[in-house]
């Protein structure tokens, strides 16, 4: 009987308590619990081996609460360091859009004009579709 290969830990699978902390921190941002949410989110980010995804979620959540500074700093910094990171551009666009900043459109247009990644282009088109739906809903 052959030995089972050692199971690699899936970085997307965290213990329940950890996922709960992530959820509470992000919801705290949206519901403007301020300092408590910031403490939780900072602690979570500092313990992740790769905090990129969580910081993206945090940026969008903060933008939903009307705060785009974190997105500008974190996602904008990511784009400055890696100008070809089209996913960060779309996340920045979504954050700015939710925060009411008209600068979101620049990032969507940039992705549509330069990206060859089909799923990222589709996400950018999804942002435009969302905006179009919102325009007709009012």
Annotation keywords:
138 residues; mainly alpha; 7 helices
Characterization of this structure:
- This protein has 138 residues and is mostly helical.
- The chain has helices at residues 16-30, 35-47, 52-64, 69-81, 86-98, 104-114, 118-137.
- It is globular.
- The protein starts with 15 loop residues before the first helix and ends with a helix.
- Residues 1-10 have low confidence and may be disordered.
Low-confidence stretches: 1-10
DSSP summary, beta strand count:
0
Structural class: mainly alpha
Q: How much of the polypeptide forms β-strand, as a percent range? A: under 5%
Please state the average pLDDT score. Answer: 86
The first-to-last residue Cα distance is 65 Å
Oligomeric form of this entry? single chain
- Total of helices: 7
| Shape, per Cα inertia axes | globular
Order of H and E elements: HHHHHHH
What summary fits the major beta sheet?
A: none
Radius of gyration: 17 Å
**Helicity range:** over 70%
What topology does this entry show?
Blueprint: H1 16-30, H2 35-47, H3 52-64, H4 69-81, H5 86-98, H6 104-114, H7 118-137
Summarize the structure.
The protein is mostly helical and 138 residues long. It contains 7 helices and no strands. The radius of gyration is 17 Å and the shape is globular.
